[in-house]
């Protein structure tokens, strides 16, 4: 093995092998800026804050049964940072078209798997488009990495960057490697044994709880496997590989919180219900029958502590299948059903189960993962992410970030990705979908806003009526 080559984890390898021409496994972010910025200034920021993560200087070496990270000996930032300009008085539609075109283009596997495009002439300012392969890290980690490029004030404090040189690793023989793995396994077994004994001493009924948890995990695995396929709708069509994106004007986070308080739920419950209402309106507008059994979306569930700094990348999340009761027309009843579904999933082990399955698939043959992915992707109509962002405005190279948007890739036969991101007192909503899906992304964006306004109106009206009844 090359001294600068390190094995890829099984979970990261699973995401690497999910890459297809129809669904490139790229996490995409767009930062709209209120002014133009200096590209040389942006380069310095990337060199100091972005490239300190070795993964962004490493390319993937795929050996079929194994995959590795290897330092790119010809690494050049110019291969990854590009400058383009939109024509004329470009508006959001033109930026959306450019983002859709680039999201339809796979990354170059001969180099580290990321690219950035600095886009000039957008609404009097500029934008930064960021694309990173999912095998490098999960969406929450990469959003935090992207936001680490920003500052809380317009005047960033940059340090002189020393050129990074990889530390050569000592080459081990196969015998030394095998002995090292054996020692690690023995040490881990000893640690787990000591932990078990300590738990029994502190809590005598711990073995019973452990057995109960194992049973619940097995039950969640069985439920996942036996879940029926999604109903056939215009939202599930053969994929073309061409993407289109759209995003909405932001919602006021204070209004979302007021709605949640009025209904006795969480902000996440409100936004999931809003997404459900948007899909209801889509079916009505297209005169398509609403599935009586509802729809499901795959939602990434973070397994990494959010209060810990990002020191190492990689994927540490599972997926949960969230039912959306699109068949329930009454906004409050729909909210109650969404709330019940979310509470039930929070008590389940579905995220841990799917993470373990990804780890298992990453260690097995490619055909096994392909078949499992095909099976699981038939059980959701879309991927939906809801990521909490910074509460205060941020600045990139002196320019204010006016609107950030992020999308995770869709896998298998899923052709729709919905993204919810909170930022500086607002809630951003965006969507990406395959062009062959029978839906208009800009129309869905409008339905999302309509759905929230309808839910908020009913919730606040009900709250006012309750207050008046108590006062009377």
UniProtKB/TrEMBL annotation:
Belongs to the long-chain O-acyltransferase family. NCBIfam families: acyl_WS_DGAT. The keyword Acyltransferase applies. It catalyses: an acyl-CoA + a 1,2-diacyl-sn-glycerol = a triacyl-sn-glycerol + CoA. Residues 8-270 form the O-acyltransferase WSD1-like N-terminal domain. It comes from Marinobacter albus. InterPro entries: Acyl_transf_WS/DGAT, CAT-like_dom_sf, O-acyltransferase_WSD1-like, O-acyltransferase_WSD1_C, O-acyltransferase_WSD1_N. The keyword Lipid biosynthesis applies. Keywords: Acyltransferase, Glycerol metabolism, Lipid biosynthesis, Lipid metabolism, Transferase. This is diacylglycerol O-acyltransferase. Its EC number is 2.3.1.20.
């Amino acid at each position: 093995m090359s001294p600068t080559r390190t094995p890829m984890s099984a979970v990261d390898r699973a995401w690497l092998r999910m890459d297809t021409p129809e669904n490139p496994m790229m996490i995409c972010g767009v930062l709209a800026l209120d002014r133009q910025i200096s590209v040389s200034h942006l380069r310095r920021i990337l060199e100091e804050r972005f490239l300190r993560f070795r993964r962004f200087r490493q390319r993937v070496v795929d050996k079929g049964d194994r995959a590795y990270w290897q330092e790119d000996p010809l690494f050049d930032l110019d291969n990854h940072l590009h400058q383009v300009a939109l024509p004329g008085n470009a508006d959001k539609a033109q930026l959306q078209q450019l983002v859709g075109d680039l999201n339809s283009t796979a990354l170059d596997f001969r180099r580290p798997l990321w690219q950035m495009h600095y886009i000039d002439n957008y609404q009097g300012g500029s934008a930064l488009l960021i694309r990173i392969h999912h095998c490098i890290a999960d969406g929450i980690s990469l959003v935090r990495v992207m936001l680490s490029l920003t500052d809380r004030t317009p005047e960033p404090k940059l340090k002189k960057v020393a050129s990074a040189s990889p530390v050569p690793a000592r080459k081990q023989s196969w015998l030394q490697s095998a002995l090292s793995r054996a020692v690690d396994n023995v040490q881990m077994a000893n640690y787990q044994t000591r932990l078990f004994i300590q738990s029994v001493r502190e809590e005598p009924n711990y073995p019973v709880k452990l057995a109960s948890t194992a049973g619940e995990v097995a039950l969640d695995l069985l439920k996942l496997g036996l879940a029926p396929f999604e109903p056939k709708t215009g939202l599930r069509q053969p994929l073309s590989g061409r993407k289109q994106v759209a995003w909405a004007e932001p919602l006021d986070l204070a209004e979302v919180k007021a709605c949640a308080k009025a209904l006795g739920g969480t902000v996440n419950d409100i936004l999931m219900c809003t997404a459900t209402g948007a899909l209801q309106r889509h079916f009505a507008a297209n005169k398509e029958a609403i599935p009586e059994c509802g729809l499901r979306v795959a939602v990434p569930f973070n397994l990494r502590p959010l209060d810990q700094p990002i020191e190492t990348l990689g994927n540490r999340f599972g997926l949960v299948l969230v039912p959306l009761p699109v068949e329930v027309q009454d906004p409050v009843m729909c909210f109650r059903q969404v709330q019940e579904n979310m509470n039930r999933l929070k008590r389940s082990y579905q995220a841990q189960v799917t993470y373990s399955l990804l780890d298992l698939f990453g260690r097995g043959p490619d055909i096994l993962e392909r078949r499992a992915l095909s099976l699981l992707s038939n059980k959701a109509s879309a991927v939906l992410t809801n990521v909490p962002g910074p509460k205060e405005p941020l600045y990139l190279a002196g320019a204010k970030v006016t609107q950030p948007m992020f999308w995770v890739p869709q896998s298998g036969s899923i052709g729709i990705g919905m993204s919810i991101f909170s930022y500086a007192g607002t809630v951003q909503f965006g969507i990406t979908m395959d062009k062959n899906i029978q839906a208009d992304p800009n129309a869905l964006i409008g339905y999302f806003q309509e759905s929230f306004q309808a839910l908020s109106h009913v919730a606040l009206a009900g709250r006012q009526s309750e207050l008046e009844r108590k006062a009377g």
